[in-house]
Amino acid sequence: MDGGTNSADNPATLMNGSTTVTLREPSKTGYAFEGWHADSSLSKPVTAIPRGATDDISLYAKWRLIEYPLFYFAGIGKNPDGNPSSYTVLDDDLAIAPPLFDGTAAGTSAWYADPFFTQKAATVIPAGSTGDEVFYAYGGESSGSGTGPSPSVLAKTGDGLAGSLYVAALGVFAFGCTVSIAAVQEYRRCRKKSTGQ
Q: What is this structure's pTM?
């Protein structure tokens, strides 16, 4: 199993007269299953055990490490160059640096987990995590004002999309935002269908 967990639907034993058994997929956190094989070098794929098999059978699971993407929507801000673009279940803790904005007070810019800026995103992706993540940039307070968030530095959606401002107070977002979020959602649907993650 190479660290995976077998499906409860895969039998441990068979009788001579057992019907053909279609092998079920095992699971392994952070990995996509790529088939059962009859050899440890993973060169002889097996999808079923035929009826009437009389010998002991050894099966080996083949896995592919999943690389989970990280999406950043920085708008008029900038995503720091050092922020990771993806990660795997094998990575150590990954720190996420805050977005960069001109004209904002130090320490007030942050990433949010939703496009309406209601929940701050984690600043660290813990080791052993799984799943893709989306980060939305918020500009924070204008430098020197001390009066709270300034609409003039609110994040836009999509790096370099000049016409799609978030109006955070109203929870309204423009066409460019809709396109960007829809693209991420479609990606997630396709990924879930192909990997089960």
A: 0.71
